[in-house]
Amino acid sequence: MAHSSYNYTSPQDMWYVLIGIPGLEDVHTWISIPICFMYIVATVGNLFLIFLIVTEQRLHEPMYLFLSMLALADVLLTTSTAPKMLAIFWFQSVNISFGSCVSQMFFIHFIFVAESAILLAMAFDRYVAICHPLRYTAILTSSAIGKIGIAAVVRSFIICFPFIFLVHRLIYCGRNIIPHSYCEHMGIARLACDNINVNIIYGLTVALLSTGLDIMLIIMSYTMILCTVFQIPSWTARIKALSTCGSHICVILMFYAPAFFSFFAHRFGGKTIPHHIHILVANLYVVVPPMLNPIIYGVKTKKIQDRVILFFSPISMCC
């Protein structure tokens, strides 16, 4: 195809229009109320969880250190998306420069891949705790936990950095309306007047080889955990072992289910799934799991409950 008929636009000069949730513009204000509430709860809840884990010596265990990494990733994910989303809903602040859009895209994908790796690390932690309890402290040392955290960040950076080059290499010719509330890779790529097959293939490959592989390893971990648990003769011990995994399984389902719905709807949904449903799920995805994660762990984990009660008891006594 000849490109000479196109009026090319330099990426550096591009400004995009994020229209929010297409088809639901009239109810943006109403949608913004629960999203704002969930964003505040997610931010405060996760920062408070990090504070509890950092300040309480008894919580300096592998499970809680991984949980603090997850909480930090949740804060970053919601903060990289929700403020702009709310600005669109409240003030019609729909314009965003190409550079800002690409930066937001990178951080969203980077945090998602890193969070997936943290969930895998938490599954590994439960596997070692239940299947090899005598070697738990020897395997998951402070050094090992630090290396796992660094590996999660480095892997995510290596996987997601090419997205920046993949959108920069495309030829743009003035199309600038993104039917979404935030920028993501395929949303930007689809505005190009160019062949985006490389972008599609890389996006699918990343999904399968990073998060897809993480899911397979998490399933393997829990399969081995279940095999070990059902060999325990005592029912009480079985239930106790499974209950320590309950909160983590809830968090895994909340993280992956809407993410993969959004991913496959974007690529294969076509006219089957209404576009506004897909975008609404994508919007809720960046605030609902981060909001619920500290609540689930707070309800399910006795040590965190005890620390919360201890933290608030002097306040209640003062009042």
UniProtKB/TrEMBL annotation:
The keyword Zinc-finger does not apply. Keywords: Cell membrane, G-protein coupled receptor, Membrane, Olfaction, Receptor, Sensory transduction, Transducer, Transmembrane, Transmembrane helix. InterPro entries: GPCR_Rhodpsn, GPCR_Rhodpsn_7TM, Olfact_rcpt, OR51/52/56-like. It is a multi-pass membrane protein. GO terms for molecular function: G protein-coupled receptor activity; olfactory receptor activity. The keyword Membrane applies. Pfam families: 7tm_4. Its main location: membrane. One of its GO terms (cellular component) is plasma membrane. SMART domains: 7TM_GPCR_Srsx. The chain crosses the membrane at residues 31-54, 66-91, 103-124, 145-167, 200-229, 241-265, 277-299. It is found in: Cell membrane; Membrane. Residues 45-297 form the G-protein coupled receptors family 1 profile domain. Odorant receptor. Putative odorant or sperm cell receptor. Belongs to the G-protein coupled receptor 1 family. PANTHER family: OLFACTORY RECEPTOR 52Z1P (PTHR26450:SF63), OLFACTORY RECEPTOR 56B1-RELATED (PTHR26450). This is Olfactory receptor.
